């Protein structure tokens, strides 16, 4: 049976940092030259009225990487909360790493610039640290529609211009939910690889060897979402193997899953609105053995479950 290392091959991601630095203070140098904290704070499904209190807790715990998206509809609340909260913690804008994502309705040459301007205004900032294409397809057309590759390429070219080799309003650009064929298309036609591919990853949903190969070749960092399973779906976090491993290390099952993703080389963006869970999710300075890593890796053989959108069939 393959081990994770046999599948991931030359891909290292953030794993090399773990023996040198505390997780909360570790930063990965993206292929654009921008340094990104490997532990981020996710805000998916956190409503605007919950943002201030939640970010107050997160900043107090030491999180400095905030992940959002246009389709989360909380960018404006995040921008206002950061404006109010950064002075409380002695932080400046440059101490915070902000990621947001382009809505699938805004792909294509004619819409990207306005979408970026809205994001800048909503987030109350002059620049965005990492801007991602949220989905490889366009809203309103079928997954097999031939417009998808064209719109994806137009969008990537516009983001390259806005990035301007790190001198533009987008300090780094990347993608989300891109499979191998999506990555190869934009890299082959532009010569510019994404800095990050944010994608679903957990023991129940793994990636093919080809994805790791293209990411290793172009130094694309994989960033995991849904590390703890699906919203309202506890099957992963209640898995007996995960619970047993958590007891051994005197940590929570969530901490085991997050540490597993880090040791697999993925940056992570756990989300919670519960203060105790936000704090615990930042305490990841323990180490899983190779045996534990591979045991968790093999859970996919029995429990094959995807919790979020599936981009595989997007042309």
From TrEMBL:
CDD domains: AKR_DrGR-like
Pfam annotation, one family: Aldo_ket_red
Residues annotated as domain NADP-dependent oxidoreductase: 39-296
GO molecular function: oxidoreductase activity, acting on the CH-OH group of donors, NAD or NADP as acceptor
Binding locations of substrate: 134
InterPro entries in UniProt: AKR, NAD(P)_OxRdtase_dom_sf, NADP_OxRdtase_dom
Family, per entry: Belongs to the aldo/keto reductase family.
This protein's UniProt keywords: NADP, Oxidoreductase
Superkingdom assignment: Eukaryota
Organism: Clastoptera arizonana (Arizona spittle bug)
Active-site residues annotated for this sequence: 72
Protein name listed in UniProt: NADP-dependent oxidoreductase domain-containing protein
Keyword Manganese: no
């Amino acid at each position: 049976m393959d081990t994770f290392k046999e599948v991931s091959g030359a891909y290292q991601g953030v794993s090399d940092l773990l023996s040198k630095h505390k997780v909360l203070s570790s930063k990965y140098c993206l292929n654009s030259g921008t340094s990104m904290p490997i532990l981020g704070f996710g805000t998916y499904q956190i409503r605007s009225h919950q943002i201030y209190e939640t970010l107050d807790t997160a900043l107090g715990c030491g999180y400095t990487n905030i992940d959002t998206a246009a389709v989360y509809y909380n960018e404006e609340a995040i921008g206002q909360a950061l404006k109010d909260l950064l002075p409380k913690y002695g932080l400046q804008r440059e101490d915070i790493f902000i990621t947001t994502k382009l809505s699938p309705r805004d792909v294509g040459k004619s819409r990207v610039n306005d979408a970026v301007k809205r994001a800048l205004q909503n987030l109350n900032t002059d620049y965005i640290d990492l801007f991602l294409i949220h989905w490889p397809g366009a809203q309103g057309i079928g997954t097999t529609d031939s417009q998808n590759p064209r719109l994806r390429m137009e969008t990537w070219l516009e983001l390259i211009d806005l990035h301007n080799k790190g001198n533009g309003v987008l300090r780094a650009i990347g993608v989300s939910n891109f499979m191998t064929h999506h990555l190869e298309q934009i890299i082959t036609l532009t010569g510019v690889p994404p800095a990050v591919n944010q994608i679903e990853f957990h023991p129940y949903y793994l990636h093919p060897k080809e994805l790791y190969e293209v990411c290793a070749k172009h130094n694309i960092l994989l960033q995991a979402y849904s590390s703890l399973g699906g919203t309202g779906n506890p099957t992963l976090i209640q898995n007996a193997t995960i619970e047993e491993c958590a007891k051994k290390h005197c940590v929570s099952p969530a901490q085991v899953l997050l540490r597993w993703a880090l040791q697999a080389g993925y940056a992570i963006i756990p989300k919670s609105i519960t203060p105790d869970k936000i704090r615990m999710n930042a305490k990841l300075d323990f180490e899983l053995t190779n045996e534990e890593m591979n045991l968790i890796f093999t859970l996919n053989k029995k429990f094959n479950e995807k919790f979020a959108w599936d981009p595989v069939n997007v042309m």
